[in-house]
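Aim 2 progress update. The chain analyzed this quarter is reproduced below.
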Amino acid sequence: MQYTVLMKRTFLTSLPVAHRGLHDGAHPENSLSAFEAAARRGYAVETDVRFTKDGVLVAFHDDDVGRMTDAAGSVAAFSAADLASLRLAGTRETIPLFSDVVALLAGRVPLLIEIKEMRGIPAARAARAVREAIGSAPLDYAVQSFRPSYAFAYKKLCPDIPCGMLGSGERFTKDTLGGPFRSIRAYAVNKLSVRFAQKLDFLSYRAEDFPSPMLAAYRGVKLAWTVRSEAEAARVAPYADNIIFENFLPQHSARGNCGKNV
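Predicted structure tokens:
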């Protein structure tokens, strides 16, 4: 089966993944310094990507810049140059270009890329932009998204790259998700992410939802997000192959799994 081959060859089952880098008060999430801190400790790195006004991919989680900067407004309303002038969380760090993240980590540690939900952006365009930003860099990476079309588009473009679905047992509703087709998308996040993942390589699911019969029935690679303590890591270890973590430093070995698939 495909997932058995994947488990033997991918970082997704062997290295804990630092959520938005190894961030703290001095190193904001999704900053080059947070990514560097994770790389120096040998962790894989997770980052989010989304488009600027001028069609450049940046590493940033939120749709709006307000939580992480002194500015306000959608990321998509700023040019890449404008975003580069904003300071992250009161530090000297700025919002990095995705291409700069690739350059920093290539040949060092793996990267798990979440393609964020972006209103009006076709899946094929998002997939091509990520692939073009990576180019010929010697980067070990995987791609995931809450939006099935993004994950499937990347798998179609790059069949050899592990691609997966993000999911959560949180009760999303049409009012908690922005953009068009909110009712359909809420249902997909709540009910269909595991089903979509059956046709991909892995599933990233909210840690609080492990264990469950639904997750146990999924036989591919499973990641638990976001794990924030050693105790939580130990709790999910029997059920998930790996963790996406923050706020602590998990033990790791490049030669062994972080959990086991059940």
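The longest helix spans residues 182-197. The radius of gyration is 17 Å. These observations will guide the mutagenesis experiments scheduled for the next reporting period.
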